[in-house]
Fold this protein.
Amino acid sequence: MRDERQDSGGSAERLTLGAVLRDFVDEFVSTDRGFTHTLLGLLRDPGTTVRRWIERRDPRLTRPARFLMIVLAPLIVLVSLTHWGAWQYTEMERALPPEYFAEGSILEVVLRWQLALYLVFLPVLALGTRLAFRRSGLTLPEHFVFNCYIYAVTCLAFLPIMLATLGEPGSWATALFWLFLVACTGYYAWACLGLFGRTIGVAVKAVVVFAAAYVVYSLLVFAAIGVAIGYQAARAAG
């Protein structure tokens, strides 16, 4: 096996604990670059921050896919440890025959595929902005970049909502969730205004895109869960 250090044209320094800690601080603590710098930019002026990556590939910004994965990691861990949302799946299971769950409950299906379920929202949003703002000159991958950053911020904001609604929530939790969706819609519209132009038309289109994307996403998720449950039932019957 060839030495990769020879392929790179020189010898690389050996990793030390200090170097790893410096990388961690540089990524998550420093406000001049990395995750924290990117997050602060997305909170202060999301449209301009995303444009910095699209137009200049600003090295101080965390890459969009990496930024989203960093945010989704604690979200997935929290759902896995607390089984957040289990109450709604229990209600669904009561309405279906028990043989549908011979190989696992709805919650188990969701936990098994939760990363894919979270990521489904991203292409739906990207296609929405591509259609709504096709005159912006941005390519579909650039729409993915924009929505990757903005979606990551909304996922991060969802973490305290999840912590506040652990267990079986009452009507107050439902109201809190809908307030969260309204806030996310407003943030999404603000981000679109910064990237696509500060006009009433852009704001209206952004609200429509986010609302329509959420409806489509919900339908896709429930359809996927239904297919998975149906497949389990067919295997159990066979």
Remarks:
- The chain has a mean pLDDT of 78.
